[in-house]
């Protein structure tokens, strides 16, 4: 175990546009010490998610933080120390995880993370390829099976994924096609994003710019399940029209405005939220389910049934690389995932 007392980290103290000089900066942070269930991980690769940019732009809007906040919610690394209550892990294990939004993130040389939300990485992937998976795969898996409560054995059911080419959409298509009998419709509006969702396994592609018409032109009057990974408010009316009687809608994107939930009443349709951080945030009794999901995911990857959604990788722990990754994620045009190895 290292005897260092500090480590390099990248964070922010003010919510600034990414082009601002101090939107992200490098600093010396205290070396983490494990709580009872923690692993201390030497981080080797991370990936960027929309939540990284959201936290950066919202957490310190009208104030200056006394201590820089470290973001980063996907990581792969090597275990260098164990908390006293940790089981099933050893120093030297290569692990992957999505972390806890209430604790310092993965944009650092070392990170403390609860072992119950960590698993050993797929053996066939590089660090960067594995780092692309945890947050999005947990989100997709929880949405399909914990929130929408899809029966893997059910047949003749249809799932519409809005935002199919993003990180969550990309892995959710694969999970649905590998673990259920669902017919999957994914949205895309550019030739490259349409090709991407097809490569992930989507059965049909709809254009989200005219969602209702596009889905119906594919031959579907209604769909049994909708998973919105993009714009909840903008697609609300389309989702209300397209959802089947007794169907279910799930979303990971908060409403920027209000909607009339009563529009779903006549169909006895449901709406449910998914937040990947809920289990760690509230230390739920089933928190270890995230470890179990990541273990199952690793097995599917090593069997060749699930592939990484990594499309772009940067090399080196530098401010320029982290800022570039944030710029790309904020563009809203990324396919798959962006990783940084160091």
Automatic annotation (TrEMBL):
This is Zinc-type alcohol dehydrogenase-like protein. Coiled coil: none annotated. It is found in: Cytoplasm. Pfam families: ADH_N (PF08240), ADH_zinc_N_2 (PF13602). It comes from the Bacteria. PANTHER family: QUINONE OXIDOREDUCTASE. The lineage of its organism: Bacteria, Pseudomonadati, Pseudomonadota, Gammaproteobacteria, Oceanospirillales. Residues 20-340 form the Enoyl reductase (ER) domain. NCBIfam families: adh_fam_1. InterPro entries: ADH-like_N (IPR013154), ADH_Zn_typ-1 (IPR014182), ER (IPR020843), GroES-like_sf (IPR011032), NAD(P)-bd_dom_sf (IPR036291), Quin_OxRdtase/zeta-crystal_CS (IPR002364), Zinc-ADH_QOR/CCCR (IPR051603). Belongs to the zinc-containing alcohol dehydrogenase family. Quinone oxidoreductase subfamily. Gene3D superfamilies: Medium-chain alcohol dehydrogenases, catalytic domain, NAD(P)-binding Rossmann-like Domain. Homotetramer. Keywords: Cytoplasm, Metal-binding, NADP, Oxidoreductase, RNA-binding, Zinc.
């Amino acid at each position: 175990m290292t005897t260092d007392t500090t480590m390099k980290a990248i964070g922010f103290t003010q919510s600034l546009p990414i082009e601002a000089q101090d939107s992200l900066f490098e600093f010396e942070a205290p070396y983490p010490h494990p709580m009872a269930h923690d692993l201390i991980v030497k981080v080797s690769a991370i990936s960027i998610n929309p939540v990284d940019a959201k936290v950066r732009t919202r957490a310190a809007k009208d104030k200056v933080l006394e201590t820089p906040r470290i973001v980063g919610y996907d990581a792969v690394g090597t275990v260098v120390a164990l908390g006293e209550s940790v089981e099933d892990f050893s120093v030297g294990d290569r692990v992957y995880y999505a972390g806890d939004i209430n604790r310092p993130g993965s944009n650092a040389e070392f990170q403390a993370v609860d072992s119950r939300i960590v698993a050993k990485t797929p053996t066939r992937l590089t660090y960067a390829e594995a780092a692309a998976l945890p947050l999005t795969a947990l989100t997709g898996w929880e949405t399909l099976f914990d929130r929408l409560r899809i029966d893997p054995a059910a047949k003749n059911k249809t799932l519409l994924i809005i935002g199919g080419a993003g990180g969550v959409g990309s892995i959710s298509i694969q999970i649905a096609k590998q673990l259920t009998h669902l017919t999957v419709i994914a949205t895309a509006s550019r030739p490259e994003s349409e090709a991407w969702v097809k490569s992930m396994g989507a059965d049909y592609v709809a254009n989200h710019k005219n969602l209702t018409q596009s889905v119906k032109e594919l031959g579907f009057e209604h769909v049994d399940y909708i998973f919105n990974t993009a714009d909840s408010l903008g697609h609300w009316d389309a989702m209300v029209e397209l959802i089947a009687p007794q169907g279910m809608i799930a979303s990971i994107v908060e409403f920027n405005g209000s909607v009339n939930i009563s529009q779903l009443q006549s169909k006895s349709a449901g709406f449910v939220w998914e937040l990947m951080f809920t289990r760690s945030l509230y230390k739920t009794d089933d928190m270890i389910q995230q470890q179990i999901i990541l273990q199952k995911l690793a097995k599917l990857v090593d069997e060749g049934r699930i592939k990484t959604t990594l499309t772009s990788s940067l090399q080196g722990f530098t401010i320029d690389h982290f800022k570039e990754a944030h710029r790309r994620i904020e563009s809203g045009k990324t396919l798959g995932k962006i990783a940084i190895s160091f």
